[in-house]
Amino acid sequence: MAVTIHEEAIHGRSAAALPAIPAGLRAAGPVIVLLLLGFLAPLLTVAAYAFATPKSFDVFRSFTFANFSAIFDTSNTVWMSFAWSLAFALATVALLAVIAYPIAYGLNRMFGKWSGFIGVLFVFPLFVSENVRLYGWVLFFIKNGVLDGGLKWLGFSGGPEVLYTPGAILFGMLYVYLPFMLFPMSLGIAMIPRDLVDAARDLGASRLMIWREIELPLAMPGILIGMLLTFVLGAGAIAESKILGGQSVITIAQDIEVAFTYAQNWPLGSALALLLVAIVSGLALYVLAKLDLDRILGKR
Amino acid sequence: METRSHIRAQAFVKVWTVFVVLAIYLPILCGALAGLSKGRYFGFPVRVFSTEWWDKTLASLEIQSLVQNSLLIAFIVTLASVVLAFFGALAFARYDWKGRKTFQKAILLPVFFPQPVLGLALLLWFNALGINPSWQTAVVAHLVWIVPVVTLVIAIQVYSFDSTLEEAARDFGASRWFILREVTLPILWPGIWSGALFAFLLSWGNFPLSLYTAGVDSTIPKWLYSKMVAGYSPMVPALGTMSTLSAAVLLLAGGLVVMLLRRRSMRG
């Protein structure tokens, strides 16, 4: 190994510059440039703003921790938004894992020729703006809406008041992020070799034991990706609390938005964003480091 | 006993799936009902159906410009992201190179990122560069999120690609571009078309990135949101339903093309 690297270094210097770049790097080049300019640079800008004087725009000219001390000030209520957002995200992950597992299992093992069609039914909502779908639930739950009006029409006293509560926000998040749990999970279950399950059954393992000892561990990479995705998206959720929650709970993404728009305090907003990003990407990098993507995506 | 519990489990999975699918489409149907009922405010059961709000929406000049903006952005995003993601997917799944594992993970980061935060970060960055937000900056923002998704979609196809075919062509003396055109591309067409379909539809429906990066140029999701928050009109559900229907038609047509391509590439 050491020898080849050494040789490459020698030959690389003598050969022309262009052919020395491996084909993979050349193919990845444009995407890498896009990520550097469109993802890394904006993040660095946020970081720069996070350390600028509060309520100012003199980024790169001042350096202070004032924004962070404002966030950690206990007289402030920002930490509650953080707590709500993380709690919502955790609840979303846990509930969606339970909701999506049977469907992911069915898509792989039971639906046969229907599974393509059923898969499309679950993909389609991704292409409809989430506002439109969340607003549909408002029309369903609102007074004189589909539920309330429908129940009255049938002679009941009307529907329950669920709109504009934390429960409605959680419901909206489960609804919007379901596909992000379902598809990675389904990829994971597709990685379980059938003969392994059959072999275990022939050897007399119970169904629970097969599931716990074989199916679950083998499907875990996909399940982990699904959980990671839903957690990250849930922690950054904003539309659900605005449309279904009616300000009953302020999420952290909403606090960030307010800091940037009405409050015109970009440094504070950046500090909040940076904290959220640190939590979220810390977790993402930790989980991603454990996964072999070639196996998950390649084995179909 | 074993088989009976198995049958029960199967029945549960089926019933559950049907229930969740119905729940997914319920709010979309509610929106369709609201857009098709007469009167300013929605009430259920709908007393009088009318196409009044559909007609008003279709005739509105403001909405025509929204559709133009959304279409233009989605179109450019589709073209650019398919080209970038095609090469990105080759680097992701086909070539063996030293930075590959890092690249595979780095490209996932924008997907694993809260979009409202990404939108705001891009807004700050454009501001630092002295660029005014407009539909062009929205295109860049969409690309940051959509190129990784399309790369994954195409990469899945690339994994099933037999690279000995390329080597055989090279042994016969074919040039690099000839191989790309005659061997690589035809095999990957189904993945490329699926990627293009994803790119277009994801851009068409995107709200959080457009909200912050489109500036004064509004898009359909952006306009819908502003009207939901303040100044409701039945044009909101009507336009929402139209946007959903256009996406459905496109998905159906695109899905058909991809299916035909798959069938052909399997035969070939």
TrEMBL record, chain A:
<keyword id="KW-1133">Transmembrane helix</keyword>
<feature type="transmembrane region" description="Helical">
    <location>
        <begin position="216"/>
        <end position="239"/>
    </location>
</feature>
<dbReference type="GO" id="GO:0055085">
    <property type="term" value="P:transmembrane transport"/>
</dbReference>
<comment type="similarity">
    <text>Belongs to the binding-protein-dependent transport system permease family. CysTW subfamily.</text>
</comment>
<keyword id="KW-0812">Transmembrane</keyword>
<keyword id="KW-1003">Cell membrane</keyword>
<feature type="transmembrane region" description="Helical">
    <location>
        <begin position="31"/>
        <end position="52"/>
    </location>
</feature>
<keyword id="KW-0813">Transport</keyword>
<keyword id="KW-0472">Membrane</keyword>
<dbReference type="InterPro" id="IPR000515">
    <property type="entry name" value="MetI-like"/>
</dbReference>
<dbReference type="Pfam" id="PF00528">
    <property type="entry name" value="BPD_transp_1"/>
</dbReference>
<protein>
    <submittedName>
        <fullName>ABC transporter, membrane spanning protein (Spermidine/putrescine)</fullName>
    </submittedName>
</protein>
<feature type="transmembrane region" description="Helical">
    <location>
        <begin position="162"/>
        <end position="183"/>
    </location>
</feature>
<feature type="transmembrane region" description="Helical">
    <location>
        <begin position="116"/>
        <end position="142"/>
    </location>
</feature>
<feature type="transmembrane region" description="Helical">
    <location>
        <begin position="268"/>
        <end position="289"/>
    </location>
</feature>
<dbReference type="GO" id="GO:0005886">
    <property type="term" value="C:plasma membrane"/>
</dbReference>
<feature type="domain" description="ABC transmembrane type-1">
    <location>
        <begin position="82"/>
        <end position="289"/>
    </location>
</feature>
<dbReference type="InterPro" id="IPR035906">
    <property type="entry name" value="MetI-like_sf"/>
</dbReference>
<feature type="transmembrane region" description="Helical">
    <location>
        <begin position="82"/>
        <end position="104"/>
    </location>
</feature>
UniProtKB/TrEMBL annotation, chain B:
<keyword id="KW-0472">Membrane</keyword>
<feature type="transmembrane region" description="Helical">
    <location>
        <begin position="183"/>
        <end position="204"/>
    </location>
</feature>
<feature type="domain" description="ABC transmembrane type-1">
    <location>
        <begin position="67"/>
        <end position="262"/>
    </location>
</feature>
<dbReference type="GO" id="GO:0055085">
    <property type="term" value="P:transmembrane transport"/>
</dbReference>
<keyword id="KW-1133">Transmembrane helix</keyword>
<dbReference type="Pfam" id="PF00528">
    <property type="entry name" value="BPD_transp_1"/>
</dbReference>
<feature type="transmembrane region" description="Helical">
    <location>
        <begin position="12"/>
        <end position="36"/>
    </location>
</feature>
<keyword id="KW-0813">Transport</keyword>
<dbReference type="InterPro" id="IPR051789">
    <property type="entry name" value="Bact_Polyamine_Transport"/>
</dbReference>
<feature type="transmembrane region" description="Helical">
    <location>
        <begin position="107"/>
        <end position="126"/>
    </location>
</feature>
<dbReference type="GO" id="GO:0005886">
    <property type="term" value="C:plasma membrane"/>
</dbReference>
<dbReference type="InterPro" id="IPR035906">
    <property type="entry name" value="MetI-like_sf"/>
</dbReference>
<feature type="transmembrane region" description="Helical">
    <location>
        <begin position="238"/>
        <end position="261"/>
    </location>
</feature>
<dbReference type="InterPro" id="IPR000515">
    <property type="entry name" value="MetI-like"/>
</dbReference>
<feature type="transmembrane region" description="Helical">
    <location>
        <begin position="138"/>
        <end position="162"/>
    </location>
</feature>
<keyword id="KW-0812">Transmembrane</keyword>
<feature type="transmembrane region" description="Helical">
    <location>
        <begin position="71"/>
        <end position="95"/>
    </location>
</feature>
<keyword id="KW-1003">Cell membrane</keyword>
<protein>
    <submittedName>
        <fullName>ABC transporter, membrane spanning protein (Spermidine/putrescine)</fullName>
    </submittedName>
</protein>
<comment type="similarity">
    <text>Belongs to the binding-protein-dependent transport system permease family. CysTW subfamily.</text>
</comment>
